[in-house]
Amino acid sequence: MTSLTKLLINIGLFSFFLLNGTNNYASFIDEQLKFSRVRQAYKEKKPVITEKLQSMDLELNNFQVMIKAYKYEQTVRVYVKKKTEERWRQYKSYRFNCTSGVLGPKRAQGDCQIPEGYYHVMHFNPYSNFLLSLGVSYPNKADKLNSDARDKGGAIYMHGGCATIGCIPIEDGPIKEVYMLAVLGKDNGQSRVPIHIFPFEYSDIKMESAVEKYPEHKDFWENIYEIEKKFDATKIAPQVGIGNDGLYHINN
Q1: Cis before 139 (ω within 30)
Q2: Rounded to an integer, what distance in angstroms lies between the CA atom of residue 84 and that of residue 78?
Q3: Cα(161)–Cα(98) distance, integer angstroms
Q4: Successive 10-residue mean pLDDT values, the chain, 252 residues
Q5: What distance in Å separates the CA atoms of residue 50 and residue 63, rounded to the nearest whole number?
Q6: Residue ranges of the domains in the chain?
Q7: Does residue 181 contact residue 78 with C-beta atoms inside 8 Å?
Q8: Nearest-angstrom CA–CA distance, 76 and 248
Q9: pTM score of the predicted model
Q10: CATH class, 27-199 region
């Protein structure tokens, strides 16, 4: 085989894998639309999402999404931004349908706690027992380092319906919209859709009251809010990392 022939073969193989990789990357929504529940959600919510984004000077194919949940207020807030922007803007807020546990992080299987911390969507589930669901990346490194439990639990989702032993349930209509926003964000090239979960929307009064009732969580809460207060002030989301000490920190 001549050098020229080898070169042409290598170019052809490179082009094949590049083309297929691009197609796979760009077709996440096509893969999701193979599922009937996702198709129905897309049919119902695409016009709603498109109209809302346009009112914010955003386009369906040029936005990213971030989800924040607050346990005390039982509220989910969704933020969006252009892919090239830094500042996030609130898209909508939704209510929990029900809740479980108390303020404080999840530390073990069976504690019925909704986790607290910095997570991302790790699973898009079109076959959920609760219509559609987004898997939360619990337990993360911080959860593992901060718990002595052998079984720290898992399978935490944001989903439709009204049942929870640690998940975040919102109504079926809202989960269709949030699910499709996450799908579209990923289809737009967003590698990770953040889901940040907090015990409450921060204020000094709420912090003092919560620490008085649950003093064991004081250091943990001060750690997560040290980062979140920067977002509250600027609407720019810091890059969050987790150290070997189990603490969250901002990546430089």
Answers
A1: yes
A2: 18
A3: 9
A4: 48 44 64 98 98 98 98 98 97 97 98 98 97 98 97 97 95 98 97 98 98 98 98 97 97 82
A5: 11
A6: 27-199
A7: yes
A8: 22
A9: 0.89
A10: mainly beta
